[in-house]
Amino acid sequence: MDQEKLYDFIFKRKSVRNYIAEPLDGKTLSDIMSFVGDIKPMVSGIRTETRLLDNKAVKGLFKTKASHFLAFFSEPRTGYLVNSGFMLQQLDLYLSAEGIGSCYQGMAKTVKGIETPVGMELAIMISFGRPKEDVHRKRVSEFKRKPMAKISTVQGMDDILETARLAPSGMNNQPWFFTGGGDIVHAHCAKSLIGTRMNSINIGIALYHIWLAASHHGKAAEFVKDQAGAGNVPKGHQYVISVKIR
User: Fold this and answer.
1) Burial class of 155 by CB neighbour count within 10 A (0 to 12, 13 to 18, 19+)
2) Disulfide check for 66: which of 87, 129, 159, 241 has CB 3.0–4.6 Å away?
3) Matching CATH topology for 3-129 and 144-245?
4) Rounded Cα distance, 77 and 57, in Å
């Protein structure tokens, strides 16, 4: 599926927690894994692998009863959690576009006997399957999100940053804050004593929305480290990366 076709589902997607106890058919699963094979990384050079698992192969708090889980493994290199969120959000939107329910599983783990690829660790899982509830929201007002003024001081980029505002996050904590202006956005993440790992994945999800929105508006988004962004961090946050949008 063309990435551009995923854009509209930023404004419709929702986390689905109720599922019909019937697995997806083989063709649908094959199409999903084919899409996964073409997912775009944010950080090049980080090795990643995925495993398609059934419900019995997964354990953890808040685990859904979905028939399928995709485990995302990554080398634990600099930026790997942000990269993991960026990559897996592409699947989340693809599943939404296909009418398949999905939900991030931040506390899920594999059961004993499921081997982790050598040199990698489990970054995040996503559950998916036949939904027992609506997959899409009918209007943007249904999103429970902070207003733009609470997450950004950037002027003139609301059309792009609105997509980040609507991004999903663990426990809906929305840890992102954006500064900058002109053709650059600096992304910062709220500091946390217990949620640092998931917050890094969350910011990666929001950054994918920014990348996709820039593309939708005919612009290119480039991820860079920027001295000005790193040197002017909002209180209670830490600098993650900057996005040049041209």
Assistant:
1) exposed
2) 129
3) yes
4) 26
Per-residue pLDDT of the chain (246 residues), as tens digits, is 788 899 999 999 999 999 999 999 999 999 999 999 999 999 999 999 999 999 999 999 999 999 999 999 999 999 999 999 999 999 999 999 999 999 999 999 999 999 999 999 999 999 999 999 999 999 999 999 999 999 999 999 999 999 999 999 999 999 999 999 999 999 999 998 777 899 999 999 999 999 999 999 999 999 999 999 999 999 999 999 999 999
Whether 126 and 73 have beta carbons less than 8 Å apart is answered as no
DSSP, collapsed to helix, strand or coil, labels residue 181 as: strand
Q: Which helix (H) or strand (E) holds 109?
A: strand 109-110
144-245 folds as: NADH Oxidase (3.40.109)
The residue length of the chain stands at 246
Residue 85: beta bridge partners?
none
Please give the class, per CATH, of domain 3-129: alpha beta
Q: If 0-12 CB within 10 Å is exposed, 13-18 middle and 19+ buried, where does residue 228 land?
A: exposed
User: Could you tell me the pTM of the whole model?
Assistant: 0.97
For residues 187 and 243, the answer to whether their CB atoms sit within 8 Å is: yes
Instruction: Map out the domains of the chain as residue ranges.
Output: 3-129, 144-245
